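User: Please predict structures.

Assistant: First:
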Amino acid sequence: MSVAPIAPISAAATALRVQVIGAVETGLMAAVDAVQGQQAAAPAAEPTPPAPPLPNPLRQAVDAARADAAGRQASAAPLFADITEAQHAPDLAAPIKAAIGQLLMLRTSLGGPITAAIIKQAIAQSGLFLEARLLARAPPGEAAPPDVKAALLTLQRALAATPAAGALVATHPPATPPPVREAALSAQPPARATLSAADGAPVIVQHLQREVDQALARQVLHQLASLPDGATPAWMFELPLATPRGTGLAQFEIDRDAPEAEAGHPTEAWRVRFSIDIEPLGPVHVHLRLEGDQAAVTLWAERADGLERLRGQGGELAKALPAEVVFHPGAPRRPLPSSGQFVDQTS
């Protein structure tokens, strides 16, 4: 069994670099101009002591984009719950309803068997690779593939073109930790809708504008967490899951270890982590490691009944993968994130 990279690392990295720089272009170019001006004005005849290293403009741009998005991000589960109700509002504008329908179509259904092809398609349209696709420039006349981030941006534009019920009311959504590589993953169960079709278009638009902005900020954080950092490549993303009780979010992290020589042949090791919270299992966390033709899976279930259900399926899981499957109660322990990664949104 072999695993191919989800997308070319160089294309994704280039796309994200363009996106991040574009988000803070004015400040970035001002910093570059200031550095060039200092270098041009420096006297050439007099020797000068070594100057301290200049700040990395790209790193500053990434940090600025991350800080901005972390202060606004929230789980998309409430958004999916609310648009499911809002799509039936009789006075909601047609472009908004169309954008809602497009976003709901991008959920992965858990009503049938989950195949490798379904997972591959869900990852491809997760929103992580939107800018990479735009840079690839599809041939003229060819429709762009569906994408969660693109659908969110379309919905955001449709909402912005419709009158809302006044200034947005500041609220504090349920805290969902921002995505950080190697940190604990957040399984997000379906949320309860806070809107109804009878609320009226201005109220619905006002409410959805805030939730779409929060969901887009979280998308950006996943893309920033997937930027190459000089170590092993990694991809972080979330997949919306359509369940009988609503739309939940499964958070994923995929990374690759450096090849290790084994009997003269280098072998790659892939690691996949994901967390889900769906009924009747409750919160479940999965770690999968694939090295060559060998696979190992470790599952944690936070609810006792969920753990028993999984153990009852252990034989089928081991046969389907095929892999050694180990079960644990609770949740995996992850190292605490470094200082400054999270933003306090309670004040």
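Second:
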Amino acid sequence: MADNSDSSKQALRTRLTDEQYRVTQEAGTEAPFSGSYYKHDGQGMYRCVVCGNELFSSDTKFDSGTGWPSFYAPAASEAVDSREDLSHGRGREEVVCGNCEAHLGHVFADGPNPTGLRYCINSAALDFEEEQDV
């Protein structure tokens, strides 16, 4: 569960960029085609920029053409949660970090096999950990 105390919010404001804070804490959305991970093709793990939770493997990333990094499945079932989002006059499923509840993006039922889902995620909500060659 997220810590919403004033001191915790101030610590996040200090640690995160303005864009990261706006996206993860205020349910913002970065401009399409602008995020650092939109065209990113490295191999590794995408993590929550707030708490470091493993969210999505690069193995599930695909080019949806929407302007945001897209994944067809989370790294684990508990990695993310979803909840109804009625903002902007339409119903959508918001995706939040399963650990700290940071806003990540939205999930849609128009993705590729095997899940048919498209997790449309803001780059500002992500950190990337490169897979190490062993």
